[in-house]
Amino acid sequence: MVCALGAAVCFGTASVLQAVAARAAEPGTGSGVDPALFLRAVRQWRYLAGLGLDAVGFVLQIIALRHVPIYAVGAALAASLAVTAVVAARLLRVRLSRTEWGAVAVVCAGLLMLGLASGEEGSGTGPPGLAYGLLAVTGLVLLVGAVAGRLPDRTRALVLGLAAGTGFGVVEVAVRLIDGFSWQELANPALYALLVGGGAAFLLLTSALQRGSVTAATAGLVLGETIGPALVGVVWLGDRTREGLAWLAVLGFAVSVAGALALGRFGEPEPEPAPTGP
């Protein structure tokens, strides 16, 4: 859980840095799947710093996924939205309302409950077609990204964030289906689902952060990377809770995700008023 929370800090901070860089880049085609926008944004040091934090967060996420259930990791990653809101208040010169600070507290409370209730990760590998299903989901993610570019900015950011989160959710499940690093794994479709899903998620998230609300985009991201993978982990991969604490895990998961979405509901916090005086 410590690694999962560390990943949330990395991802949440990276989102704001990447948003600053993406907004400074020249506008692209408007499509959510725009590699040229990514190439323009990656020339800026803030975006590179964000990618560095993403890399550290990804390593921490893999460690967490190897030791605790997917639902626990997913809920911990929901805290990245709280981190995004706090860092945005600094770097983007925006102000968090009392309601938004309350949502941050709700996320933390949900994570505490989930941490107390989570058990060992499951040892299941799921049905034979699960890895191919992940590949199909990555194709759907790319399709949604291409269509979402035509939506209004606020809706666009939320939908692209949701699609990006789904791509990262594919990565979470794929990690559990890959048995170490060996030449045999080159024949495992889960490996390619991980690569394509992660790549698609980065493209869509960059587009989502360029226009619209950073918190709305991150809210979609949180929703996409938590609910689906959590269900897969419980239904097919054997993830369980501590004896008698299933109710606390369900409550903690629901509370943390609800708090994260509440932050996204209010969109971008209002800018701080300009200082007045002589």
From TrEMBL:
Keyword Transferase part of the UniProt annotation: no
InterPro entries, alphabetized: EmrE-like (IPR037185)
Domain of life: Bacteria
Cleaved signal peptide residues: 1-21
Membrane-spanning parts: 68-89, 101-118, 130-151, 158-178, 190-209, 244-263
This protein's UniProt keywords: Membrane, Signal, Transmembrane, Transmembrane helix
Protein name: Integral membrane protein
Organism: Streptomyces subrutilus
Upper classification of the organism: Bacteria, Bacillati, Actinomycetota, Actinomycetes, Kitasatosporales
